[in-house]
Write a structure and sequence with these properties.
Layout (H helix, E strand, L loop, with lengths): L6 E12 L6 E15 H5 L10 H19 L5 E4 L2 H18 L5
Helix pairs in contact: 2-3
Length: 107
């Protein structure tokens, strides 16, 4: 049976400042460009969406939720990560569009 899961792909960057073995600070941070495919269902399947009251609450929670999902589904350890605005915007627009269908009175 074919997997019908839909994904939305983003590009982001990680910066590692500490050695993965000994946890010592690195002389020169390791910067890597990466790609992550967000499972669209995971992005939208979040109980708290229905509890938010105002659009600015959605905006804040969308940013937080994107970072939370990325952190949960990638191995970031000691790494800092940066999602370019155009990538965050792509996710934000997707989520807002989907939430507008599910919660039109709140968007």
């Amino acid at each position: 049976m074919e997997d019908a899961t839909e994904y939305i792909k983003i590009n982001y960057q990680t910066t590692e400042n500490r050695c993965g073995c000994c946890n010592q600070f690195l002389e020169k941070p390791i910067v890597e460009d990466k790609t992550f495919e967000f499972n669209k269902k995971v992005l939208l399947d979040w109980e708290d969406w229905k509890n938010l009251e105002y659009q600015h609450d959605f905006e804040y929670q969308i940013e937080y939720h994107i970072l939370e999902v990325l952190n949960d589904y990638t191995n970031l350890d000691n790494k800092k990560f940066y999602i370019p605005e155009e990538e965050t915007s792509k996710l934000r627009n997707y989520i807002l569009e989907a939430l507008n269908i599910n919660y039109p009175d709140k968007i």
